[in-house]
Amino acid sequence: MKLFTVCMRASLAIMAVACMADAASAQRAGSNPGNREESDARREAEIMRRTMAREDEQFRRTSELRRSAPNRPNTPTLFLPTRKMTAEHKRRLYPTDAERASLAALLREDGAGLMRLLPYTRCTADPRILHVEPPPCLEQVPPVAGGGSFYSFRKKKHNVAPQADIALHENTFNVGFMKHMLGLLTTVGDVPLESVTLETDAVRPFLKFVPAQTQQETAQEFMRSRAWLKSPGYAYGPSAPVRENATYVLRAIAFDPNGTKPKDVLVAFRVTRKDRDGAVTIAWKQLQKPKS
Question: For residue 110, with 0-12 CB atoms within 10 Å meaning exposed, 13-18 middle and 19 or more buried, which class applies?
Fold first, then answer.
């Protein structure tokens, strides 16, 4: 009985300490909601990076199998059914004619465009599996690389890594989301896209960084020269929240799988429309010719 009493007292003491610690932690989090939001954003970005890394590795292995298949004797070729682009897919994936007409002057410029980004979804088609019926969620995903959640400013089309420069996930723009990519972006604010140039204060820090010829050297130089990111009034990072009528500046550097031949792009873009489901229409322009 005495031993039971001692154990109970010890347990109550431990629980009291734990509760005090939780309360203190909650008080710290409540006193600074910005830290909590930043932590949540980092956690979401890390989830997306891990998911994309798995899908990138799966795509790489599938591509290797397809390349080696013709060299195997008596190996039948399997042609998977191609999903068709529906009217609903087109409505979600492409800007409207009215939007294009309103930005006709921008679209006549070389190195400019208008595109749509759809929220990232984990509903994807595995090319190694032949489904009798596709997953129901797949009907909502346009049959383009990345499902419309990734875009390459260099290729001017929806694409996945290593071509993609930007991704949309959980109401957040992401860059540098794969291991062979580096990227940063910043929010300029509600300013006209045409007013953003290489002389804009928010753009100048991007110009100070010169990538090396390999990914490892570039990453090392990037960490050594973080001081070039210091600019009063602007925050630079691998992600930024989506805001309608906001203008952003992005720089993305992508390497091939061997970690060489960097492809560099610097663009300004503006969210001209944001839908209830999180999809956005984006007008963009290159601030300098892509380097590769």
Answer: exposed
Asked whether the CA dihedral 223, 224, 225, 229 is positive or negative, the reply is positive
- pLDDT band at 152; cut points 50, 70, 90: very high
Of the candidates 134, 139, 133, 138, the one whose C-alpha atom is nearest the C-alpha of residue 122 is: 138
3-state class (DSSP) for residue 112: strand
Tokens at 134, concatenated: 């596709």
**Joined tokens for residue 99:** 């939007």
What's the CA gap between 265 and 253, in Å, rounded?
A: 7
- What whole-number distance in Å separates Cα of residue 54 and Cα of residue 38? 25
Q: Cα(129)–Cα(206) distance, rounded to whole angstroms?
A: 43
Question: DSSP H helical segments within the chain, as ranges?
Answer: 2-31, 33-68, 87-93, 97-102, 104-107, 204-207, 215-224
pLDDT of residue 138: 77
Per-residue pLDDT tens over the stretch 195-215: 999 999 999 988 888 777 787
Greater confidence (136 vs 32) lies with 136
CA-closest candidate to residue 56, choices 144, 184, 163: 163
Cis before 162 (ω within 30) = yes
How far apart, in Å, do the first and last CA atoms of the chain sit?
78
Is 80 exceeded by the pLDDT of residue 260?
no
Cα–Cα separations (whole angstroms), residue 94 to 4, 142, 164: 70, 11, 17
Give the helix/strand (H/E) hosting 115: strand 112-117
Q: Buried b vs exposed e over 189-204: b needs ≥16 C-beta within 10 Å?
A: eeeebeebeeebebbe
**DSSP code for 102:** H
pLDDT of residue 200: 95
